[in-house]
Amino acid sequence: MVLSQEPTTNVVKKSRYNYQLSEIIRQRAWVEIDQGALSHNVRQLRAFLSPSTELMAVVKADAYGHGAITVAQTVLRSGATRLAIATLGEGIELREAGIIAPIVVLGAVNNPEEIAALCHWNLEPTICTPQQAITFSKTLAELEQTLLVHLKLDTGMSRLGTLWHQATEFVTLVHKLPYLKIVSIYSHLATADDPDPTVMKMQQKRFEDAIHQIKAMGIDPPCLHLANSAAVLSDRSLHYDLVRVGLAMYGLYPAPHLESTINLKPVLQVKAKITQVKTLAAGTGVSYGYQYISKQDIKIAVVSIGYADGIPRNLSNRLKVLLRGQFVQQIGAITMDQMMLDVSNLPDVEVGEIVTLIGFDGKNSISADDWANALGTISWEILCSFKHRLPRIGKRLD
């Protein structure tokens, strides 16, 4: 058989179809971002804080999979005053989108090329060690530019930062170095989501002891921050001048015991379309490895989403989705681009119907927490796993 070489324009009339990407992206699978819910969450958090405490919105990792640019624009309109990202590239992306709010780089930057880029894009780095501070100062001297910097202390996370008992020497050094202007001193909590506050309180005491010693040296930090989402919701004494909020802003609670603190709305939903419906005879294997074999005649629906989109393959045969507001069982191994559902109990299922993998449909819902609990992981990982080939579509409900 020879395919026709006749131009497509002579085969179909373009006027019958919409070739716009904004329409075509909904033909397979997508992530819906409820900007109204996001704005609601920021307002709830803002009201929970004292008027003097700023809210820094953490938009690293593409805003936890929600789309950094749209999220940043929305949260800044809703009450956040600063943004936090992890990498230099994430900061540049926001600046190129026209965002002018202060942006703090939480990750470590060490080489002169990156330091020059920080200056060019007006980004505020985190300084973690004396050696890093010296490198910054030397490079900035060559550039004849001053940078606003944030100093990080390690009070028990054992990740980035100078150990709390070495804080005085560290901060004094940075204070004396030319071309570095200290904007804040901060640390990060390791167990803020634990109902037992013992370790969190230990870290808070280390932080406050270090700050007391720094002030005794005649250095008065303009801004202190320690609290992540869990700390914000669990203990107001941890709020200080600024809080760094990630997960709660996206509508999820860091731990079950914090769910009664404020009213949060999930921001993200994951949806996909059915691309084929068929009937299988009893004893038929489904998908790779025949992890599922039908015990009776069943009707299945093929859905256009898979592990290349961020659906964990380990959820195979354990995942439930929503179709017409009802829970439906996924069957067989989840494949790279597709998965199969048992829709035997639903009449007349058709190609093109929308399946909800995370989100609401009628009176039922599925959350990232549900997936995380099934996999023995955390909701942060689930949110960050959805790949970029799933377009993010903004949706306002308020």
What descriptive keywords fit this protein?
alpha/beta, 13 helices, 30% helix, 398 residues
Give a written overview of the molecule.
The chain is of the alpha/beta class and 398 residues long. Helix content is 30%, strand content 25%. The chain is built from 13 helices and 20 strands. The chain has helices at 8-11, 21-24, 35-48, 60-65, 68-78, 88-96, 112-121, 130-143, 167-176, 198-216, 229-234, 368-375, 379-384; strands at 29-34, 54-58, 82-85, 103-108, 124-127, 147-154, 162-163, 180-186, 224-225, 242-245, 268-280, 285-286, 292-293, 298-303, 320-323, 326-331, 339-342, 354-361, 364-366, 392-395. The strands form three sheets. Strands 1, 11, 14, 15, 16, 17, 18, 19 and 20 form a nine-stranded mixed beta sheet that branches. Strands 2, 3, 4, 5, 6, 7, 8, 9 and 10 form a nine-stranded parallel beta sheet that branches. It has a two-stranded antiparallel ribbon with strand order 12-13. Strand 3 (82-85), helix 6 and strand 4 form a beta-alpha-beta unit. Helix 3 crosses helix 5 and helix 6 (88-96) runs parallel beside helix 7. The chain is elongated.
Shape: elongated
Low-confidence stretches are 1-12
Report mean pLDDT, rounded to a whole number.
94
How many whole angstroms does the radius of gyration measure?
A: 25 Å
Oligomer: single chain
Structural class: alpha/beta
Helix/strand layout:
Elements: H1 8-11, H2 21-24, E1 29-34, H3 35-48, E2 54-58, H4 60-65, H5 68-78, E3 82-85, H6 88-96, E4 103-108, H7 112-121, E5 124-127, H8 130-143, E6 147-154, E7 162-163, H9 167-176, E8 180-186, H10 198-216, E9 224-225, H11 229-234, E10 242-245, E11 268-280, E12 285-286, E13 292-293, E14 298-303, E15 320-323, E16 326-331, E17 339-342, E18 354-361, E19 364-366, H12 368-375, H13 379-384, E20 392-395
Parallel strand pairs: 1-20, 2-3, 2-10, 3-4, 4-5, 5-6, 6-7, 6-8, 8-9
Antiparallel strand pairs: 1-11, 11-14, 11-18, 12-13, 14-17, 15-16, 16-17, 18-19
